[in-house]
Design goal:
heterodimer, A: about 220 residues, alpha/beta, two-stranded antiparallel ribbon, 5 helices, 11 strands, globular, B: about 80 residues, alpha+beta, 3-stranded antiparallel sheet, 2 helices, 3 strands, about 30% strand
C-alpha cells in the first residue's frame, strides 16, 4: 500500500498524515505541488491539511492551479482514490472534484477542539471499518469549515449516499459547531473514490493524545 | 483601464460576517439598517483598452478564480 501526500506552500499536516499511514503499515511519499505527476504506484492520494497559499482569496482557491492538480484530476477520473482533509477538502471542492463549498464558520471563530462525528454511510472504502451510526471522536481545527450546498445538491448527496459524516455529540445527536448545511462534516463524490472531510483523523492516532478513532477511519483504505 | 470586481455571497447563502456587522450596528443604536452583506472588492489594473474584450477577460477571471460561483456572485465595473 502506497500513500502519496500532496504538499503545497502552507501545508502543515503532511507529516502527521505520513505518521498516521506509516503507523498503519503503508509506504508513504510526500509530493511537492510543482510535480506534474504523482508516483505511479500510488494507491491513495491524500491532499493534506494546512493553509495552502496562506488561504489568500479563499481557502484552496489558488492551490487548485498548482501543476500537480491536473495529475490529481486525471488520477481521480481514472478511479484513483483521493482523500482531502481540512484544507485538502477545501482544495477538492474548489477544484470541483467534490460538490459544494466551504464558508467561514457561522460564529466567525476559528474552532480547534475534539468533536464527535456520526458515520452516515459506510458503503465506501473510507469508512468500511466502521458501522453506520458509529460515533467517533476526532479533532477539528478550522475557520472555514461551514459546508454549503444548495437544496438540489443536498438532495442528490442524500440519494446517492454521499454524506459520510455529520457533527454530533457523544450520543450521536446532531451538534453543529460551524453552521454546516445538514451538519455535514464529510462527503464523497458520486463514484465514491474522492473523499473530503473537515475533521482531522490523522491527529487521532494515539489514545494517549486524546483519541485513536482515526485508526478505524484511515485503515479502511489499507485493504483496497 | 481599471476593472473593479465586487464579490459577495449569493442571496440565500447565510452571510455570517454581514450578520455580525448588522448586530454590531444595532449595538451602536443604528437601528434603521435592515440587512448587511459583507463582500470583497478586487481592483485590477488592465492593459487592455477594448471594453468588450476587457469585460470578457475579467468575466473569465471571475469564473475561474476570483469568485467561487457555488456560493458567490460577482459584479464587474470597468472605469
Amino acid at each position: 500500500m502506497k500513500v502519496s501526500i500532496l504538499q503545497f506552500p502552507g501545508t502543515n499536516c503532511e507529516y502527521d498524515t505520513q505518521y498516521a499511514f506509516e503507523k498503519l503499515g503503508a509506504q508513504t511519499e510526500i509530493v511537492w505541488h510543482k510535480s506534474e505527476s504523482i508516483p505511479a504506484d500510488t494507491d491513495l492520494l491524500v491532499v493534506a491539511g494546512g493553509f495552502s497559499y496562506g488561504d489568500y482569496l479563499r481557502s484552496g482557491a489558488i492551490a487548485k492551479f498548482s501543476p500537480v492538480m491536473q495529475a490529481v484530476k486525471e488520477y481521480a477520473d481514472k478511479g484513483g482514490k483521493v482523500l482531502g482533509i481540512c484544507n485538502g477538502f477545501q482544495v477538492l471542492t474548489e477544484s470541483r472534484l467534490l460538490p459544494g463549498a466551504l464558508k467561514r464558520n457561522e460564529n466567525l471563530h476559528f474552532i480547534s477542539k475534539h468533536h464527535h462525528l456520526k458515520v452516515e454511510n459506510n458503503d465506501n472504502t473510507f469508512l468500511k471499518k466502521l458501522d453506520n451510526g458509529d460515533v467517533v471522536n476526532i479533532p477539528i481545527a478550522h475557520h472555514d469549515g461551514n459546508y454549503y450546498i444548495d437544496a438540489d445538491g443536498l438532495k442528490e448527496l442524500e440519494e446517492n449516499g454521499q454524506i459520510l459524516l455529520r457533527y454530533t455529540d457523544a450520543e450521536g445527536n446532531v451538534q453543529n459547531p460551524n453552521g454546516s448545511v445538514a451538519s455535514i462534516a464529510g462527503v464523497c463524490n458520486k463514484n465514491k473514490n474522492v473523499f473530503g472531510l473537515m475533521p482531522h483523523p490523522e491527529r487521532a492516532m494515539e489514545a494517549v493524545l486524546g483519541s485513536d478513532d482515526g485508526v478505524k477511519m484511515l485503515e479502511g483504505f489499507l485493504e483496497s | 483601464m481599471k476593472a473593479i470586481v465586487n464579490v459577495s455571497l449569493k442571496q440565500g447563502v447565510l452571510d455570517s460576517q454581514g450578520k455580525a456587522v448588522h448586530h454590531a450596528l444595532g449595538s451602536l443604536h443604528f437601528n434603521g439598517v435592515e440587512d448587511v452583506r459583507v463582500g470583497k472588492q478586487i481592483v485590477l489594473q488592465l492593459q487592455e483598452t477594448d471594453k468588450e474584450k476587457a469585460m470578457a477577460d475579467v468575466t473569465k477571471m471571475c469564473e475561474e478564480l476570483l469568485a467561487n460561483t457555488v456560493i458567490e456572485d460577482y459584479e464587474i465595473e470597468l472605469v
